[in-house]
Amino acid sequence: MKHTLLLPLIIAIFTSLSAQAQQLDFGDRTSATIAGKAWGALNSKNYPDAVAYAQECVKMYEKQAVEMQNGLKEPVTGDKEAVAKMWALNDVGTCLFIMGQALEKQNKGTEALAAYKQLVEKIPFAQCWDPKGWFWKPAEGAKTRMKALEFDSLK
Amino acid sequence: MKSFSPARFLSSVAIVCATMFHFGSASAGEVKVGKDDKGHFILLRDGKPYFIRGAGGSSHLLLLKEHGGNSIRTWGIETLEQQVDGKWLIDRCAELGITVAAGIYVGHERHGFNYSDPAQIKRQRETVRAAVRKYKDHPALLVWGLGNEMEGPTSDGRDPRIWKELNELAAIVKAEDPAHPVMTVIAGAAPTKVKGILEHYPNLDILGVNSYAGAGGAAAAVKAAGWKKPFVLAEFGPSGHWEVPKTKWGAPIEPSSRDKAAAYFSTQKTMIEDAADISLGSYCFVWGQKQETTSTWYGMFLKTGEKLPQVDAMCRAWTDQWPANRCPRVTRFESELKEAVIAPGQLCTVRAEATDPDGDDLKWEWTVTAESTDLKVGGDKEAEPPSFPDAIVSAEKNQAVIRTPAKPGNYRVFAIVRDGKGGASAENFCFRVEAR
Fold it and tell me: What burial class does residue B6 get, using C-beta atoms within 10 Å of its C-beta: 0-12 exposed, 13-18 middle, 19+ buried?
């Protein structure tokens, strides 16, 4: 009974996102380009596009990201180049964080929580360069946002 | 050489007598850094584990206690003698069972201190020594807060002179008072700062970090930079005004009261979960009210004394319980004026909605102010911008009609809702008036 209700919803969301994704320009379709476009959409408050870009990056590169994660015992340290070698891990992790942020802005707390959870559980060693001069970890930001969403739902 | 002055001599005697009177016969509890059976750093106060549930500030002490807090942090030694409920602050804290991370101001170059000037350095060492001698036996003393952001909030921390001098100052503190650890607080967890401290400041016992948007990950960041000693999150709160999105004209957009409350809760919880190995606790910022970018950005209380939802959030994080009376919760705050550019003299409606968890009757207050132009860095004192009472044409319950000011410029609309029992919530948005 539940499945008959849920299935049309999933199909509708997938169709809607697919249609939206078809209209977007993914450039050279590298993870870095798509992640950059997702950041751009988030910063310009175009939240549906931010989600669509981020989803495309996750869809295309999640497998490589998880493989990179599984090859690590701790986050990569050292110079920028060493961290950048984990390109799929870093870009997919960043995109999951962007997705969570954009979904939160659309008051989609449950979906945002799912994106953050995926980031924390599957690719916690992802890193993102801060123009101020250091790397930060999207999974740490995601953990904080998960707690914030938990707090906001407390009665 | 200074000449003898009877007045100065009598004044010194009076201070010594007053100090003896204030401290009474109680001896200071010895505070040490130790480790628990898991190998995690802990504070031991009189031999018992002590986790800091702290707040930065010196007001609303009873409320701090009632909401589950146990410690305050000050920034300058003179604050300890501030009058609170007819007593010195530090005595009132002792009376309430609240400990104090006693801040000792250490010079900032942006305020004119020169770390290459031997005379200034000598004077500063004498001041630090005198402060420690004066308060080291006070029973409320928890740790020494030796300096706050003295490296500069925008510095990369590569200048070794400041870290080297702090190392000298910490040696003075330890020589005078071996019974209380030394904490120094830096702005943000930049690896270059941590590395500078590791290289030049071995006398430091506890690294304090002030962090806002990234506060939940601050402990992990200092660990990644090589820090292996204890850590305190020394200031945290909502995203800072330098960390948030801005309007088209560059005004920082203040987080909503709900977002702020959630940020306090999540930071405290995340820090406890992720940094149990090095974290000795935290101090939320600021347990009081201050003008910094706006009148409500960082303060956990209104100027009129009511607590804001951030206080309830800390109570929940500290105790897993809500306080007896909770603040109203704003669920809607909308207007066509929000982040808009608009002509002078236009009439606009602002609507807000709020619920009160205790069912209290709610009263709204509406204010239009100029955007602050007296902006400083590092929390330096700022002047309040002027307000424009005539801009509120009508205000009925949760709705107000605003006439945009005649003078072009940047403004904010504030909505404050009070429950009449000491709880409130505050929201604001920006708008810009341009002549057309």
Answer: exposed
Of B245, B270, B313, the CB nearest to A144: B270
- CB contacts < 8 A, A to B, total 59
Task: Tell me the pairing of strands B392-396 and B363-370.
Answer: unpaired
Structural domains of chain B ordered from first start: 26-319 (3.20.20.80), 329-433 (2.60.40.10)
Q: Is residue A33 part of a domain?
A: yes
Token output for B216: 């939940």
Number of domains within chain A: 1
- Domain assignment present for A101: yes
What CATH number has the domain bearing residue A96?
1.25.40.10
Integer Cα distance of A89 and A95 in angstroms: 10
Which of A56-70, A77-91, B59-73, B169-183 is predicted with the least confidence, judged by mean pLDDT?
A77-91
Torsion of CA A113, A115, A119, A120, to 10 degrees: 10
Q: Measure B49 CA to nearest chain A CA, in Å.
A: 26
| pLDDT beneath 50: ranges in chain B | 1-26
Q: Is A134 on the interface with B (CB under 8 A)?
A: yes
Q: Which of B198, B194, B183, B197 is nearest to B235 (CA)?
A: B183
Q: Partners of B41 in the beta sheet?
A: B35
Distance from CA of A1 to the nearest CA of B (A): 35
Q: What pLDDT, in 10s, does the model give residues B347-384?
A: 999 999 999 999 999 999 999 999 988 777 767 778 88
- Specify if A6 maps to a domain: no
- For residue B269, list chain A residues with Cβ-Cβ distance below 8 A: 147
Q: Do the domain assignments include residue A8?
A: no
Q: Which residues are within 8 A (CB) of A54 and not within 5 positions of it... i.e. 6 or more apart?
A: A34, A35, A38, A95, A96, A98, A99, A102
* pTM score: 0.85
Chain B contact residues (CB < 8 Å to A): 156, 190-192, 214-217, 220-221, 224, 245, 258-259, 261-263, 265-267, 269-270, 273-274, 313, 316, 357
Query: Does the beta-carbon distance from B156 to A148 stay under 8 Å?
Result: no
Q: How many angstroms from the chain centroid is the CA of residue B428?
A: 21
Domain span at residue A74? Answer: 21-152
A154 chain-B contacts, CB cut-off 8 A: 316
Residues B85-105 pLDDT 10s: 999 999 999 999 999 999 999
Q: Does A87 touch chain B (CB under 8 A)?
A: no
Q: Which residue of A has its CA nearest to B238?
A: A148
Q: How far is A136 from chain B (nearest CA, A)?
A: 8
- Give yes or no for a contact between B384 and B336, defined as CB atoms under 8 angstroms apart: no
ipTM of the complex: 0.72
